[in-house]
Amino acid sequence: MFAEATGRLSELGAATLEVLPRLIIALIVFGLGYMLSRGVRAGVRRALALRQASADVAGVLGRIAGGICAFLGFLVAASVAFPSVSAADLFNLLGIGGVAIGFAFRDVLQNLLAGILILLTRPFRIGDQIQQGGVEGTVEDIWVRATVLRTYDNRRILIPNAALFTSQIEVITAYERRRLSFPLTIGNGDDIGEARRVIVTALRGAEGVLPTPPPEALVTGIGEAGVDMVARFWIDPPARREAVDALDRAVEAVKVAMSEAGLDLPYPTTQILFHDQTEESDGDRARQREGWPKPRAAAPRSRFAAMRAERSPAPSQGEG
Description:
- This protein is of the alpha+beta class and 320 residues long.
- It is built from eight helices and eight strands; from the N terminus they run ααααββββαββαββαα.
- A five-stranded antiparallel β-sheet has the order 4-3-2-1-5.
- A hairpin with a 3-residue loop joins strand 2 (135-142) and strand 3.
- Helix 1 packs antiparallel against helix 2 and helix 6 (192-205) packs across helix 7 (240-260).
- The longest helix has 49 residues, at 2-50.
- The radius of gyration is 41 Å and the shape is elongated.
- It starts with a helix and ends in a 9-residue tail after the last helix.
């Protein structure tokens, strides 16, 4: 028993001594491959920077190129450590494993490809304010898997890149200027031209409103309370903070100016009229009151009194 155990230990030691040099060489090869991948990553970033590509695109493509080089270095190191395994076997295993991984991580790979396409097409950049699916905020970072948004109330939201690439996105800060508007209503008896002049003058004097394109006040319809209008003006820059401040100052300036000019700012009112269906005039469009108070003179009789009068026999001519 002791001799058999000693023999097995000797065989294991001999096999280890035989494999150990190959393992050391494989580690050295993998280390060289890793260092090469870092160099490739830096070279790709520098090459894309010389072509005036964005830092995001350069970073992602550099990481992808470095990852490919590191993976190739691992394959070479594996073939050195285990000579019985050929490169063809490794690639066949890689193909079968790739199919399995593709089915298992379909969503991850979809987000990965969408992230690469977003970085290449650049529909928005870091620092832009976007809105997608009811979520609005500032783009803090664009990862390969997701895009990081920081909302205006200081929350972090991760949106999968596949959702951004396949759905509608509103890039709020895509252009230098942005148009804002707010509705208002003037009285039916007010002069529309005078109201338009007062609104435009107030908007021109509000801080943050651009003189060009000029602000305007448009009539949009006849509403329940009066004449509906909309005030429109432009701001620069188009960020959320500036938009909120400019809208606040514009609404305040228009309200003060219209009050000083004597223009009415009516609000919807409701008048309820109760239709009395017990009067004899009900159904007669020329006589029914439609809920208005009874007149002091010649008030209509009730329907019961009218029907009773119709049923009573008329007096004969010989009576009296």
